[in-house]
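This part of the workshop introduces the protein records we will be handling. A learned vocabulary of local backbone shapes supplies the integers on the structure line. Getting from the letters to the tokens is the skill we practise here. As an example, a complete record with its sequence and its structure tokens follows.
=====
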Amino acid sequence: IGLPLALGGLTNGVSNIEMTAAFASIANAGVYNEPYYYTKVLDHNGNVILKKETSSRQVMKTSTAYLLTSAMQDTIVRGLGSTTQPAFLDYEMPIAGKTGTTTNSIDRWFCAYTPYYTCSIWMGFDNNFEIENPTQNYIWRDVMETIHKEKQLAYKEFTMPDSILTATVCTKSGLLAKAGVCDAYEGGTTVREEYFAKGTVPTEYCDCHVIATICLDTGHLATEYCTNVEEQVLLVKDEPIIYYPTELDPTTATPT
């Protein structure tokens, strides 16, 4: 059945042009365009003797394509913007993409796109030697930087389709953030603006953070007899589990 396909495992591999066309469909709002090497061939009189007929089709939802783009922008900004794995262009332009490495570093990929162009770089040996100093990111950057500079392309953001909505969520629970709670936790704010496909926006509020009255003398939940008290934001669910002096029921925020 080819179950490893879900993790990127292919029996017969994939060609560079196939990989580039796949990533280009994500960049193109989910529309797959059949790749081609020429548009037309003319004779010496200017008559068309060959003309390439291409096909296009929608292969994924516009919302799926945009969410993938957003995720792969994070890959660039958080993981590939360093000096050891550069992917940023000196020519300022948003980039979305992903690296790929096969077992024992025999194949190295970097597939990425801007709002204008998609480019995939494969690096490897015919005899399947291990690649010790991969430079696919450098190659991608040099190629794409040259293209964008020579064409003097204007700065452009990836277009967000109407099928995408935004919501302010808590990164601990994935649910809607509680104002004055999720952003007031002593461990730092966990509030983030996130993208969602229509119909998937959370409707419930964070169940990880609660406001509790703490006795400052004991550090435990305050009772009616405590006078030195303070309201604090507590994290009652997390991974890994964090224990507090007195447990709270995360659904009701009351002592158990």
User: Anything to note?
Assistant: Confidence is low (pLDDT under 50) at residues 240-256. The first strand starts at residue 31 and ends at 33. The first helix runs from residue 16 to 27. The radius of gyration is 26 Å.
